[in-house]
Amino acid sequence: MGQAATIHAVALYAAAALAEIAGCFAFWSWLRLGQPAWWTVPGVASLCAFAWLLTRVDAEFAGRAYAAYGGVYIAASLLWLWAVEGVRPDRWDAAGSLLCLAGAAVILAGPRGG
């Protein structure tokens, strides 16, 4: 995968992560924080956007696209924790996230034998 394609994939993964986390948080807010049930309506739309965005990643196999996305999702979840929930990730969160992002980079950009 070339540099431009990698940058495009990372942008799609970041958008997908935001959509997935926002959609799931809508349900969390309804069921755990006492928000009204109508919060799930934009939540479902956000989850649909998440699924659509993942299909836009230029990957030969869905499983590989999903595996690489996992690292981005973990990092984005910790950013959400900090930005939306007001809890600063600790060093263990940061270390784990970096490990996952390294794994995602290997999966996404690693040379493929033929």
Structure description:
- The chain has one domain.
- It has four helices and no strands.
- Helix 1 (3-33) runs antiparallel to helix 2 and helix 3 (62-83) runs antiparallel to helix 4.
- With 114 residues, it is mostly helical.
- The longest helix is centred in the first third of the chain and has 31 residues, at 3-33.
Compact overview of the structure:
The protein is mainly α and 114 residues long. The protein has helices at 3-33, 40-55, 62-83, 91-109. Helices cover 77% and strands 0% of the residues.
Throw out a few tags for this protein.
YnfA family protein; mainly alpha; membrane; single chain; 4 helices
Query: What is the helical fraction, as a range of percent?
Result: over 70%
* Broad shape: flat
The major beta sheet can be summarized as: none
Give the averaged pLDDT, no decimals. Answer: 92
Report the sheet-strand fraction: under 5%
Gyration radius, in Å? 15 Å
What is the terminal-to-terminal distance? Answer: 14 Å
Pattern of helices and strands: HHHH
Please, how many domains?
Answer: 1
Number of helices: 4
Tell me how many strands there are: 0
Low-confidence stretches: none
- Regarding quaternary structure, what we see is single chain
Structural class designation: mainly alpha
Keywords: Cell membrane, Membrane, Transmembrane, Transmembrane helix
Protein name: YnfA family protein
GO cellular component, one term: plasma membrane
Subcellular location: Cell membrane
